[in-house]
Amino acid sequence: MKSFAKLQDFAPSLAIIWCFSFKPERLEGETTLTDRGFDLTFRTADDPSLSLIKYGEFLYDNLIVFSPSIEDFGGNINVETITAFIDGGGSVLVAASSDIGDPLRELGSECGIEFDEERTAVIDHHNYDVSDPGQHTLIVADSENLLKAPTIVGKSPLNPILFRGVGMVADPDNPLVLDILTGSSTSYSFFPDKPINQYPHAVGKNTLLIAGLQARNNARVVFSGSLDFFSDAFFNSAVQKAVPGSKRYSQTGNYELAVALSRWVFKEEGVLRVGEVSHHRVGEIAPPNAYTVTDLVEYSIVIEKLSDGKWVPFDGDDIQLEFVRIDPFVRTFLKRNGGKYSVQFKLPDVYGVFQFKVDYNRLGYTHLYSSTQIVYAERPLTDNHRSLASYGLKDGDVVILRQKENVEPRPPGHFPGLPRIDFSSIAVPGMSTQQPQQPAQHLRSSPPEAPSFPQGLDNPALLRDMLLANPHELSLLKERNPPLAEALLSGDLEKFTKVLVEQQQDRARREQERIRLFAADPFDLEAQAKIEEDIRQQNIEENMTIAMEEAPESFGQVVMLYINCKVNGHPVKAFVDSGAQMTIMSQACAERCNIMRLVDRRWAGIAKGVGTQKIIGRVHLAQVQIEGDFLPCSFSILEEQPMDMLLGLDMLKRHQCSIDLKKNVLVIGTTGSQTPFLPEGELPECARLAYGAGREDMRPDEIADQELAEALQKSVEEAGMSTQLTNCVT
């Protein structure tokens, strides 16, 4: 029997055969697997010493199974072992026959191949050899039935192929299975000596004679339904179809096909690798630390293939490069120059962490993947005389403002300051400066050094101006730090500075105490808990830093969705909220729109959500004008609702509305009209406040509890008044 190929010198391979009389030998001076670099080990299928794995390592690179009728392998080899071998990247060549046993049938099923039953055979009454006048199971397959992949089946035209064996079908849901050789349209698989009383397992072109698989880890498997396909008799046999006038060939194409298949399955052909990868700006030779928007870059990659044991340049014109963040922003073909592929393109105006990615799949070749990550930084806007539009900024872009660092020496300050402690490795919230390290005894002997306030975030005047210019930050300050907020709103810079410095000193003292506790006994349970909390806070800070770099838009304020409408002819800015169950209107807005006369107070109650409000009653029907449409609407009237009107889920579903954030419009489904959402500058004042006035020093849960208590108290009082009135009437 003749044999074939290699991937590397002396690649260890195990051949499992059904008897030693079937052992491959040299025939007519042709090169065998051994002569081509494979270290072959022959074992019979029931050999008790059979083994693929030893000490957790695979003993072989390739496996040949030419024992179709085996029912149980010897040693420690079974179907699970072979599938694990494939999962580890091993190559497997399997030959079956009409006497196929359960192990090979199960192995085929694991690889997406289903063999027909034992004792069945592929039959073709139109394409059989002249030497088979009986059951027509000696099939003559034309080379046109081969897979159109020269890397797998060879390049030269082949003579007809002889086949006698069991048929297969491929799993239609497995995209990795390859139909290497199929039967003709007149072929089918069934029992040769039985009448056909049921639909055959395989019919026509769906009948697989030889099938292959390349797994996602590039492991390769070939299944042949015929063991005779690899025999010397079939290699050297003449072939002629039993059709009058058909051509007679002196030799089959089995040997050439078997050689090509073995070269592919044992990875002598169709193997790709990535060589040198480079990227840089056009006109430069080295990659920068970070790219900026609209940079013109050049990317190149060297791709090689294995040919006759040597790596040579790969020749392909269908290789694409993708420039990816989460989704591809650029997808373009690479231009070939020998084995080097390159392309120039302009980076998009979106920054973040990107990848140059080449993900190449080609029939017959190993999967090629290369990914190079780069930092794609923002462009600094340094010219204050240019407009944002001239920098290419559009709606939705993010502009990050950074405070310029002052590199000049800091002048001495005039305020009681912090001890001179090294905080270089400790993140102190609110501190943006660092003091030089001093000996430990200096903490006891030297007086506190007054801090200086440069042009940074700890400059009281600058910090005061920033907070006063940002209503949202001011609201948060009132909530989280009432003493500092009170000093800020007093208008007295000296008072604000004094409170700020005191809080910084207090924070520094706590931090010093924490460090002392760590140094005193790191194994103390309380110290351990504080160390754990410190590590957790560092992880949180790192997570936030990564988020600010890769998704800075998530830290921006979200503009609420408001639309212009009219109620009873009065203009109203309505908040669109699909998370609210019902449509509501404030009492003040209802009075302006002159619909309080329609309020049904039997629907009074309490509305709970983010806060609590008393429901006065319900207006069952009123017209709301949106653009040119007049829509019937119902309102629940709330007593102290800060926003005028909220369109809830009840009315949105009633009029089949949809929120189109891409176009930034509200679509009225029942009429097809659209109305734009208001820009931030036209939002009502209530859309900018975090909490109501007078509650800045309360937590959200305290505010909700207080509102609920007030609403219940009002309900009780009104119920008492109603009872008194009833008693008076009676």
From TrEMBL:
This is Dolichyl-diphosphooligosaccharide--protein glycosyltransferase non-catalytic subunit. It comes from Crocodylus porosus (Saltwater crocodile). SUPFAM superfamilies: Acid proteases, Ubiquitin-like. One of its GO terms (molecular function) is aspartic-type endopeptidase activity. Residues 32-265 form the OST48 N-terminal domain. Belongs to the DDI1 family. Keywords: Aspartyl protease, Hydrolase, Protease. Residues 458-523 form the Ddi1/2 HDD domain. InterPro entries: Ddi1/2_HDD, OST48_MD, OST48_N, Peptidase_aspartic_DDI1-type, Peptidase_aspartic_dom_sf, Ubiquitin-like_domsf. It comes from the Eukaryota. Residues 552-660 form the Aspartic peptidase DDI1-type domain. The keyword Hydrolase applies. Residues 431-444 have a biased composition (Polar residues). Residues 279-387 form the OST48 middle domain. One of its GO terms (biological process) is proteolysis. Residues 430-458 are annotated as: Disordered.
